[in-house]
Amino acid sequence: MFSKLLILLFLPLVSCLGLLSVGKKANAWAGWVASFVSLLGLGISLYLFQSWVDAPQQFAVEWFQLKEKSFTLSLQTDNLTLIMLILVHFVALLVQLFSISYMHDDAGQWRYFAFLGVFVFSMLLIVLAGNLFLMYVGWELVGLSSYLLIGFWYEKPRAVWAAKKAFILNRIGDAGFLMGILLLFWYFGTSELSVLSSQLAVNSLQVIVSGNELTLIGLLLFCGAVGKSAQFPLSAWLPDAMEGPTPVSALIHAATMVAAGIFLLARIYFLLTPDALTIIALIGGITMVMGAYRAIFQTDIKKLLAYSTISQLGLMVLGMGIGAREAALFHLLTHAFFKAGLFLCAGAVIHAVHTQDMRQMGNLRPKMKITFIAYSICAAALAGLPFFSGFLSKDAILVETFAWASQRTAIAYVLPVSALVSAGLTAFYITKQWRLVFLTRPTSETVVHSPEIQEADKLMQLPMVLLAGLSVFVWFSINPLDAAHGWFFQLFPSKFSHEWHTIVATLSIIVAAVGISLGYICTFNHNIPSIVQQFGTLHDAIKKAYEQGWNSVKHQLQILREHDPETEQFLFLISPLQKIGQWLYHLDSKIVDVTVNGFAYLTVIIAHIIGRFDRMVVDGAVNGAAWLARFVGSRTRNLQNGQAQSYFVVVLVGIIAVILWVLH
Fold it and tell me: Could you give the CA distance from residue 253 to residue 165 in angstroms, rounded to a whole number?
């Protein structure tokens, strides 16, 4: 099996290197090569799944040694690994097939499919990694792939800005992830997941490290999920990542990469203390509600789906935090299918009308019937309607959330109630989008409709139809209202709170029905119910007061700045980092430079003084002694002239001097 895993892992990397080496000449067949590689990987994944035995397996080779510590490259396979392998390859295959038609006029197809190959390789490395160090390598490569694909159209300044924004925000989360890995290795001497989970249970871990330290480690590891899965407060990069090609949004920013954070939480779940899980649940709840609320006011078809993705990821994180690990993974699977389907349908619409503004769309159903049907099915799954996969997975999390809250104080019911409200908002905004794009007449004065608008071709229809088909309940459970006895929960056994199921399912259906009804009625309809109209008026009033009263404060405290084409050179970076850079510049120019230059001037002055002292005193003394010696020598040299009379005069003068001295 190890050889098959290696082949599976390196196939997309080999295809990437091949496409990069050939270059533009590969444009005509790059998509087909990438699709064939994904199809081959999917076949191997299905074979491994079919021949799988229940016991997890691990394959490791020694990487290097540092003193007495051994670092290994280990691959791990279990139920979760195999499901993720199938999911990644299947969605990648459909996205690549869709992209062949979607990107057919782009001159950089070879780069596009090569970058997709890098991403698939990176994602497989995360899925197969048996230790956190190797997972971190894949984690960073996924971030690089996302950066390259978001900024694929690098001639667009906003795409470049969005790529930088995503890259920097993910690095913030990844820094916490790395610190968590290092602390884990510091305390336990290993990052092997199998060693930590099987030989060191949580109770044993707390013997080695205190509960607070273990909570800190868990939260630092969770930082990686906060960045990759766009959780509060690092969620702002995902809507702007829609600047990349739409198929990229379907693969990376809906189905796989953003779900890597949920996968990470599932892998390290045994390390998370109750305190850490509570914080994770709160972060997930905040993200879930914020994403759903902000989606309501979007007019960009892709940004609405991006905020929806943020909200659904928040729901998964909430599920992890309240202990519904298996339910969260189930929603990860179903969400990957219907959200990727929604993005591909949105891509087909954009490809037809050449705009992302929903106000310039409308009444597309007669011209794009297949897209309309596929979009409707995926939207129904997202809205949480019965008989669709989204209802099964959302219901599983909601049931466990209510059961979790029932075992705690009354304040704990804030989370399940928030989840129900978020479900209602989700049904509202997706119905609003569905009607606005396919049924209602365009509301903008700028209408892009023309007789040339036509249905997507067969190559684009196939992925949409398959993903829409997989959004129906029958693939996951025979019972359309309960997945407890479906194949997924047989593969991932879980304790269900059946006593809450009927109540929660009923509430979920009611909330979805209300959201859909209001979304359908309120889609740019003048006959808006008074309660909705009042809510909109209240929202506008609060927003206006905020913008007027706190605009300057907002400008100073905002976490991220929006892209401004006129001053993009100042706004490409995260504003806190920009302000820190400005402060450091002033510190450098006003203090450091002044201090250094002052010392330089002082040094020069002292050097001149020392130079003068050296020339006038030291050199003067030495030169004066030399002159005196030369003078005395020249005078005494005249006495040694070799003449007897001179010597007689000297002797005579000497005798006279002695006599005078004696007489004195």
Answer: 14
Rounded Cα distance between 492 and 83, Å, is 11
User: Residues 576-582: contacts with CB within 8 Å, 24+ apart?
Assistant: 577/168
> What sign does the dihedral 533-539-541-547 (CA atoms) show?
negative
User: Is this prediction's pTM over 0.85?
Assistant: no
Residues 81-93: tens digit of each pLDDT: 999 999 999 999 9
Nearest to 71 by CA among 184, 161, 191, 158: 191
Residue type, 570: F
Instruction: List CB contacts of 337: < 8 A, sequence separation 6 or more.
Output: 91, 255, 378, 381, 389, 467, 470, 471
Tokens of 298: 């979007």
Our CA dihedral for 267, 269, 270, 273, rounded to 10 degrees, sits at: 150
DSSP letter string, 483-534: -TTSHHHHHS-----HHHHHHHHHHHHHHHHHHHHHHHHTSS-S---HHHHH
Q: Please say whether the beta carbons of 483 and 330 come within 8 A.
A: yes
Region of 384 on the Ramachandran plot (φ > 0 left; ψ -120 to 50 alpha; else beta):
left
Question: pLDDT tens, 366-421?
Answer: 899 999 999 999 999 999 999 999 999 999 999 999 999 999 999 999 999 999 99
What string of DSSP letters covers 289-356?
A: HHHHHHHTT--BHHHHHHHHHHHHHHHHHHHHHTT-HHHHHHHHHHHHHHHHHHHHHHHHHHHHHS--
In this prediction, residues 583-601 reach a mean pLDDT of: 88
What is the spatial distance between Cα 397 and Cα 410, in angstroms, rounded to a whole number?
Answer: 19
- β-bridge mates for residue 131, sequence order: 192
**Pick from 352, 151, 150: which is nearest to 248 by CA?**
150
- Looking at residue 575, its amino acid is S
Between CA 358 and CA 378 the distance in angstroms is 18
Tell me the C-alpha distance between 330 and 341, whole Å. Answer: 17
* Bond before 576 cis per omega within 30 degrees: no
Residues 378, 335 contacting (CB under 8 angstroms): no
- Per-residue buried b or exposed e for 480-519, using 16+ beta carbons within 10 Å of the residue's own CB: bbbbbebebbebbebebbeebbeebbebbbebbeebbebb
The residues near 244 (Cβ < 8 Å, ≥ 6 apart) are 149, 150, 151, 152, 153, 159, 162, 163, 253
Contact call for residues 301 and 342 (beta carbons, < 8 A): no
∠ CA 219-225-230, rounded to 5°: 125
Contact 344, 98 (CB under 8 A): yes
Express each pLDDT in 287-329 by its tens digit: 999 999 999 988 899 999 999 999 999 999 999 999 999 999 9
- At position 408, the amino acid (one-letter code) is R
How many Cα atoms sit within 13 Å of 105 on the Cβ side? 2
Residue in 352, 163, 332 with CA at minimum distance from that of residue 255: 332
d(CA 416, CA 401): 5
What local confidence, expressed as pLDDT, does residue 274 receive? 92
What's the pLDDT at 447? Answer: 53
